[in-house]
Write a structure and sequence with these properties.
The chain has a five-stranded antiparallel sheet. By secondary structure, the protein is of the alpha+beta class. 18% of the residues lie in helices and 20% in strands. The protein has a domain of 129 residues. It is globular.
Amino acid sequence: MATEVTDGFGRAYRYVGPPELSALVDSGDSGGPGGPGSPVGRRVRTAAEFAAWAEAEEHAEPSTFVVDLAGALRLAPRRSEHVVCAGGELVLSAGEIGFRRSAGGGWEVRTVSNQSTGYCPDLTSWPAVAAALDRLGLPHPGGFTEELVFRRCPACAQCGIVREGHHVCVFCDADLPARWNVDVPATA
């Protein structure tokens, strides 16, 4: 599996988080509707599928989301692991998303972030999210409302979040690179 995609939205992100969480997908403990290894995330590809999901869900807090390689939005309860939501597969983006009723009675995106410490998506993953939301006819803020900048430290190999533009590792004080480097391209 390659982590670079030549068509569409650029990088595909593979899971880089704790192995014990990805094991939930492999063990079948994901609770998915299709049995062992099935994703918990409900795939919504049309406005009707989204409306059915939205009517059945509580919207007091954001939901976990991923955008799969087909560009479809997958949604799961907030405390779901992104890797389980994605069925362990590569994603084009991942994070948390909140919805609300619009003034016209439809649905719109209230908040959306790239907060996923399992996939650590770059801010450049926004176009994949926007395209998935546009396909569903969901008005959105035009960018992440909370942006997390993930980097892997070249000195200690720990993955962390850059805070307030301060590109220094919180674990060892080494300088962090300006460009996304959490994962390296895999070979097919």
